[in-house]
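#struct-queue
[09:14] JT: dropping the first one here, sequence first, then the structure tokens:
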Amino acid sequence: MSPSFLVLLLIAVVMGALVGFWLRSSNREQPSEPPPQLSSEEGQKSLAELIESGQMINAIKLYRQIHGCGLKEAKDAVEAMRDGRAPMESLARREVSGPDVNDAIERAVRDNNLIQAIKLYRDQHGVGLKEAKDAVEAMRADLLRRG
């Protein structure tokens, strides 16, 4: 084998690798667009349809998108709606203020939905996570004492 043949072979291999990388990178999927924002009514309707058709994973994903909550909370909520333990209308985001918020916080604490109670407390009082968590835990302890 002559040295010029080896050089040509090396150049061909390098060019082939470069073309391969270029083709692979051009065929990669582009990142998907973020899911569209749904209105409360649209979200509620879509969620009900997913639950009724048995698409629990998609329903949980949608619930998380609508409510901005964690996986466990969304799974529990969707399963409760599927099993009839929670009404579908609870999906609509209801804007509450004043005394209604305090009632909603207390209801969430009584229902042992502490994450929701903390979120409501933070929104109502404009405090940080730790302060809201401490306040909700104090409310829970008070409710347990009262029986």
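[09:21] JT: and here's the second one, same format:
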Amino acid sequence: MKKTLIAIALIGTSTSALADSPNWNKLQASYIDTDIETPIDEDISMDGYAVSGSLSLNESIFILANFDSVGDESEFGDVDLDSLNAGIGFNHGITESTDIFATVTYEKLELVGSVDDIGSESFDESGYGAGLGVRSMITDFFELSVKADYLDIDDENAIRYDASAFFHLTENLSLGVGYKLYDLDEIDQDIDTVAATVRYSF
């Protein structure tokens, strides 16, 4: 992760004359596909949607929010996973085309599973997150972003890795792909999500 952050920063330095700085005023909608590891080495695969956005308050402070909702239905039962994070961020331009940023967020995870004729179980906990990342306009049309968050949810620790790439069709409209990983060390499980996203910048 550190090497990736450094590489993107260096790329941003070499192309600063070609691209503007990242725009923090944006709204996004995504189709997402999520896999959850299980103790029996069989992943639970779910799909759904995500909505997110951020808004600049001034040149160096922004607010952000993200909501993901995925689920899976089978002849045996249902599984649903919702996640929410919202908070405040601080960005600083290290070149004309690259920002480093830090965030502090409220985090909430809710997992509900049900088995027909048996009943349901749920996990609904909240906590906080602290993250660092880099956004870089590699060119006027292509953007890369990477971020890592430390999470404390119900006194359990996790690391969330997030990476995305966007192609800017116009000044306002962009299409992107992303990958997000929750690394749950204490229970030795991962939650992986891939996303296809439409972004509107304003």
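[09:30] RK: nice, looked through the second one.
[09:31] RK: The longest helix spans residues 2-14.
[09:31] JT: good to know. The helical segments are 2-14.
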